[in-house]
Design goal:
binds zinc ion, globular, alpha/beta, about 425 residues
C-alpha cells in the first residue's frame, strides 16, 4: 500500500470548525499528518508517497450510514425482498455493498437482514477482501411476533424455513432466537417494537411485552451484542430508553415524556429517523400504487409531520440524529442515501455543518469506533472523501457520484481521484 499525500485540499476534519486549506498524509491505513498551509503553499514532499494535488477540492471523513439494509432489493414490497432466493440474494448484497462505497459511505451499520445470515456473510466477505464494500456491522433478521411487522407467513401454506422476520412469542423463544443470531456471528440484534403502517399494522401500535424486550436486551448483552429497535410508536421509544436499547430507528411519535427521557440519556442513544423513507413514501411512490389517497389511509402524511416535529425537538435537545434508513425500496434506491442530509437541513433545522457532522463525527461512535473513525486527524483511520464542491454551501453535492472525486477506505483508494479533472474544475470556478 503506497503512502498518499493529499496537497492543496480544503480540510473538513469533523471537529465542527470551518474547513481550512492544508495537506493530509496517509501512511498505511492511517492518517499520519494533517498540516494547515496557506493557499498555494505546500508541505515538503514525503519520500515514496503518491502526491495528489487536490486543487482546492473538499476533503472530509468517509460517511457513516446508520441504518443500512444491504438485502433490501430496491423493490416495492417486503414480499418482493423476501421472495429473492438466497443465491441471488447474497450476490445482490455484494453488489449493493459496493454501491455504498461508490457513494462515499465508507461505513454502514446493518439494521436487519432479510435472511438469517446475509449480513454476516457480507460483512465477512468485505473483511477478508472477497468483495468490495464499506466497513460493516452485521445485523440479525428483524425479530418480531406472530402477526407483527415482519411475519410474512401465510396460514394456509406450509411454514417456510424462514420468514422475513424471525418470529418469536414469549421470553424463552426470544432467548433462543437471540442466541441463534449470536451463534451466526451478528454484531447487533434487531427487534421490531412497533408496527409499520404499510404492512397493515399501524406505526402507532406496539408489539412485544416489556418482559420479552427485557429478555432480548439481557440476552443480547450477555453475548456482547448491541440492540437496535424499529420504534415508531410512542410506547416503543420509551421502552428503548427504559430498557437501554442503544439504537432507536424512526422515533416518529415522541410525546413530551419521550423527549424528556431521551434528552436525559442523550449520550446513550442514537436516533436514525429514516426520513427519506417517509418523505418518498408520501410524495414519490404513486408509481408503485402508493397514491396520495392510499398513503393517507395508511397514515403516512400524519406520521411524516409527527416525525419531523419529533426530530426538530430532539435536535434542539442535543440528541444525536443520524442519516440512513430503509434505503432499498423502489422509491428509495440504495445509493441515494445522502438525501437524508438534505432532509436534515430542509426539515429538521440542522445547519449544513450539523448535517455533515451527523454523517462523520457522530458516525464513529455509531460504528463503535469513536476513537479511530469519523475525523481527519492524526492517528485516525484513513477513510477519506475528496469532493468537487462545498457540501457546507450545498449539501446536495454529496448525492452526485460525479462530484465524489475520490473514496479512500482504510488507506486504500476505492476510487482514485481524476486529478486533472479536479484541477480544471477549480480553475473554471
Ligand atoms: Zn429499517
Amino acid at each position: 500500500m503506497a503512502d498518499v499525500l493529499f496537497t492543496n485540499v480544503r480540510i473538513f476534519d469533523g471537529g465542527g470548525e470551518a474547513p481550512f486549506t492544508g495537506d493530509v498524509l496517509v501512511q498505511g491505513n492511517k492518517i499520519s499528518r494533517v498540516v494547515k498551509t496557506g493557499y498555494g503553499m505546500r508541505s515538503p514532499p514525503v519520500q515514496g508517497a503518491q502526491v495528489i494535488d487536490g486543487a482546492g477540492a473538499f476533503l472530509m471523513p468517509g460517511m457513516v450510514e446508520a441504518h443500512t439494509h444491504f438485502s433490501w432489493n430496491d423493490q416495492p414490497s417486503l414480499d418482493a425482498i423476501q421472495r429473492m432466493p438466497p443465491e441471488e440474494h447474497i450476490l445482490w448484497c455484494a453488489e449493493v455493498a459496493k454501491r455504498y462505497l461508490d457513494m462515499g459511505w465508507t461505513s454502514c451499520v446493518g439494521a436487519a437482514a432479510a435472511k438469517p445470515r446475509l449480513d454476516v456473510v457480507t460483512r465477512n466477505a468485505i473483511n477478508d477482501g472477497t468483495i468490495v464494500g464499506p466497513r460493516y456491522l452485521a445485523a440479525s433478521q428483524e425479530i418480531t411476533v406472530p402477526g407483527g411487522l415482519g411475519d410474512s407467513t401465510q396460514p394456509h401454506l406450509p411454514q417456510p424455513e424462514f420468514a422475513f422476520g424471525a418470529i418469536v412469542s414469549g421470553g424463552e423463544e426470544m432467548r433462543r432466537c437471540v442466541r441463534m443470531f449470536a451463534k451466526y456471528g451478528v454484531d447487533s440484534i434487531k427487534i421490531n417494537l412497533s408496527g409499520e403502517s404499510i404492512t397493515g399494522m399501524s406505526s402507532e401500535m406496539s408489539q412485544f411485552t416489556s418482559e420479552e424486550i427485557r429478555v432480548c436486551v439481557e440476552e443480547s448483552k450477555a453475548w456482547g451484542k448491541r440492540v437496535a429497535a424499529h420504534a415508531r410508536s410512542t410506547w416503543s421509544v420509551k421502552e428503548c430508553v427504559r430498557q437501554g436499547i442503544e439504537v432507536i430507528y424512526h422515533a416518529s411519535f415522541c410525546d413530551e415524556e419521550a423527549l424528556d427521557m431521551l434528552e436525559a440519556k442523550k449520550l446513550e442513544h442514537f436516533v436514525a429517523p429514516g426520513l427519506a423513507w417517509l418523505i418518498n413514501t408520501v410524495h414519490n411512490a404513486s408509481e408503485w400504487g402508493l397514491t396520495p389517497d392510499v398513503v393517507k389511509k395508511m397514515g403516512y402524511p400524519r406520521e411524516l409531520d409527527a416525525a419531523i416535529e419529533s426530530m426538530r425537538a430532539l435536535r434542539k435537545r442535543g440528541v444525536r440524529i443520524l442519516p440512513g434508513g430503509d434505503y432499498g425500496f423502489a422509491w428509495t434506491p440504495h445509493g441515494t442515501n445522502a438525501k437524508d442530509l438534505e432532509y436534515f437541513v430542509k426539515h429538521v433545522g440542522m445547519s449544513t455543518m450539523e448535517a455533515l457532522l451527523s454523517a462523520t463525527a457522530w458516525g464513529g461512535p455509531m460504528m463503535r469506533m469513536g476513537k479511530v473513525l469519523g475525523y481527519i486527524r492524526e492517528g485516525y483511520l484513513a477513510d477519506i472523501l475528496l469532493i468537487d464542491g462545498d457540501p457546507l454551501a450545498d449539501i446536495t453535492v454529496l448525492q452526485d457520484k460525479a462530484r465524489i472525486l475520490a473514496v479512500m477506505k482504510d488507506g486504500e483508494f476505492h476510487r482514485a481521484p481524476p486529478v486533472r479533472a479536479a484541477r480544471a474544475t477549480r480553475w473554471a470556478a
